[in-house]
TrEMBL record:
Belongs to the CheB family. Involved in chemotaxis. Part of a chemotaxis signal transduction system that modulates chemotaxis in response to various stimuli. Catalyzes the demethylation of specific methylglutamate residues introduced into the chemoreceptors (methyl-accepting chemotaxis proteins or MCP) by CheR. Also mediates the irreversible deamidation of specific glutamine residues to glutamic acid. PANTHER family: PROTEIN-GLUTAMATE METHYLESTERASE/PROTEIN-GLUTAMINE GLUTAMINASE, PROTEIN-GLUTAMATE METHYLESTERASE_PROTEIN-GLUTAMINE GLUTAMINASE. The modification 4-aspartylphosphate is found at D57. It comes from Haloplanus rubicundus. This is Protein-glutamate methylesterase/protein-glutamine glutaminase. Residues 7-123 form the Response regulatory domain.
Length: 353
């Protein structure tokens, strides 16, 4: 049985861009039911047509993309894909949009827009279709998130261990809550592989650093990471765990071919960690489309580590966790906000085994 064709509203203040995006989506099997030139028109179009997905420009006159996202999520929650500039400033505003409820983002190319955008047509269509299937039925409140974080910090957790987190579509806000929920005195070494362009991973690391008790930075080639530290794999490069000793991990970055069409790929990082790390090891697969992470957590499980997958109910896109679960190597299937406690329990079990 084939899936119904997703219905989209395309929002951009450029008539040229609205036309090009609409043509690309229509050619890829997405029905564009309306277009809008600013945020106010976007809200009205969503209320009128009740689409499956919205592609939302950020910079628009009058009502911008951020305000439009906020209004749509308040009046008729709908999966939204932000179209962002490939810049540091664009990254900051994009993360604000994700906080307000947008599911994911797609970077607009610079230069000859029509030529470069056309080269990304297949990627855009895949992402729009994935976001169209996202569950935006309301995430946890700020109070709920605070209570979850507080619950994980009870007691003394000086167990150490390495935690590898894989995430893609819908992942940044979940990753932020997971890392923020890990107590500093647990002394974990944390590595995050979030599918994200290179202009965004540094800003993402800064956000995780501000939100958590851990010292978080974007990984550089030759980095060493110890307890209480976290690294984010940089966009465009694979992160390899190249050595371990003295409570620290040594990191190597490579530009080897993409896996699953992505670089960084979590499978690369997880396989290398499974081969290298002797201490307690936990692999976590969060929301995202595709199969990245499934082979990686299989390697972690085969090496005696513990595997956690996010459950379907709390995943915006259940592709990556589902593929991991289908491997038969997942120990716990948890809601996103329960993952920090699951990590603590897993490390404690391994330490006491």
């Amino acid at each position: 049985m084939s899936r119904p064709t997703p219905r989209a509203v395309v929002v951009d203040d450029s008539h040229f861009m609205r036309t090009m995006l609409s043509d690309m989506l229509e050619d890829g099997g997405v029905t564009v039911v309306d277009t809008a030139a600013d945020g106010a028109e976007a809200v009205n179009a969503v209320l009128e047509h009740e689409p499956d997905v919205v592609t939302m420009d950020l910079q628009m006159p009058e009502v911008d993309g951020l305000e439009a996202v906020e209004r749509i999520m308040a009046e008729r929650p709908t999966p939204i894909l932000m179209l962002s500039a490939h810049t540091a400033d664009g990254a900051d505003v994009t993360f604000e949009a994700l906080e307000k409820g947008a599911v994911d983002f797609f970077t607009k190319p610079g230069g000859e827009v029509s030529t470069r955008m056309s080269s990304k047509e297949d990627q855009l269509v895949r992402k729009v279709k994935a976001v169209a299937g996202a569950d935006v039925g309301g995430g946890p409140s700020t109070a709920d998130r605070s209570r979850s974080a507080e619950a994980t910090t009870d007691g003394d957790h000086r167990d150490g261990g390495t935690v590898l987190i894989a995430s893609s579509t819908g992942g940044p806000t979940v990753v932020e809550r997971v890392v923020a929920g890990l107590p500093r005195d647990a002394d974990f070494r944390v590595i995050v592989v979030q599918h994200m362009p290179d202009a965004f991973t540094g800003r993402f690391a800064d956000r995780l650093d501000a939100a958590s008790e851990y010292d978080v930075r974007e990984a550089e080639d030759g980095d060493r990471i110890g307890g209480g530290e976290a690294l984010v794999a940089p966009g465009g490069k694979h992160l390899v765990v190249a050595g371990a000793g003295g409570g620290r991990l040594r990191i190597k970055l490579t530009e080897d071919p993409a896996e699953h069409g992505v670089r960084p790929a979590a499978d690369v990082t997880m396989r290398s960690a499974a081969e290298t790390v002797d201490d307690p090891l936990v692999g976590v697969v969060l929301t995202g489309m595709g199969a990245d992470g499934a082979a990686g957590v299989q390697a972690i499980a085969d090496a005696g580590g513990h595997v956690i997958a996010q459950d379907e109910a709390s995943s915006a896109v259940f592709g990556m966790p589902k593929r991991a679960i289908e491997r038969g190597c997942v120990d716990d299937v948890l809601a996103g906000d329960d993952v920090p406690e699951g990590i603590l329990d897993a490390i404690t079990l391994e330490v006491n085994a």
